[in-house]
Specification:
Elements: H1 3-21, H2 23-41, H3 48-69, H4 75-78, H5 84-93, H6 99-114, H7 122-133, H8 138-147, H9 154-166
Length: 171
C-alpha cells in the first residue's frame, strides 16, 4: 500500500473512531438540527409522524456514514474497479457533487505525504486533514443543500452538520 493510500485510510479510520465513540451525541445533535432546520425553512407543517420518519432516516444515515469510514470496509471505497458508466450513475444518484471536495482531500493528502510521511506521524496527519478539511463529503453536502434547500436533502444535510460539530468544525 502506498503512502497516500495509508494516509487516506488513517483519515477514514480517525473519522470512524471519533464518530463511533460519540454516536449517541451525534444522533442527539442530528435530532436537534433536524427540528431546527424544519422550523427554519418552513417546509410545511411536518406532523409528528413525518418528523419521526425524517429522524429515522437521519439515524440510518449516521449508521451509513459510520460504515463508510469503517477501517474494515474502507477498501471498498478505494479498491473498487468501476466503469465510467457506474461512476456517472453514482453521481446522478447523489444530489450533491463531491468531486471537487474529494480532489481537495487528495491534494491535501498528497502534500502531507510529500512532507515525509513516517508511520509514527500517520495519525497526526490524519487528524490534521480532519481539522483542515472536515469529513468528506460533508462540505459538498452542506454547500449543495444551502444553495438549494429541500426536504429530500434534510437527512444528508443534518447528518453532515452533526458530524462537523462532533469533529470540531463548526462553520
Amino acid at each position: 500500500m502506498n503512502d497516500l493510500r495509508l494516509l487516506l485510510n488513517a483519515y477514514h479510520e480517525a473519522l470512524h473512531e471519533q464518530l463511533a465513540a460519540q454516536k449517541d451525541r451525534l444522533t442527539e445533535i442530528a435530532d436537534q438540527l433536524l427540528r431546527e432546520e424544519v422550523a427554519k425553512r418552513g417546509f410545511g407543517a411536518f406532523d409528528a409522524e413525518e418528523l419521526a420518519a425524517y429522524r429515522d432516516a437521519c439515524l440510518a444515515f449516521v449508521d451509513e456514514r459510520l460504515e463508510a469510514y469503517n477501517p474494515v470496509g474502507i477498501q471498498y471505497t478505494f479498491d473498487r474497479i468501476r466503469s465510467p458508466e457506474a461512476a456517472e450513475l453514482e453521481l446522478q444518484l447523489n444530489w450533491y457533487d463531491g468531486r471537487a471536495e474529494f480532489a481537495t482531500l487528495l491534494a491535501a493528502s498528497r502534500a502531507k505525504v510529500e512532507t515525509g510521511l513516517v508511520e509514527q506521524r500517520l495519525e497526526l496527519l490524519a487528524d490534521e486533514l480532519i481539522k483542515e478539511l472536515g469529513a468528506f463529503p460533508d462540505g459538498s453536502i452542506i454547500s449543495a443543500y444551502e444553495a438549494d434547500p429541500a426536504p429530500n436533502k434534510l437527512p444528508d444535510y443534518v447528518v453532515a452538520r452533526a458530524i462537523e460539530q462532533i469533529i470540531g468544525r463548526n462553520d
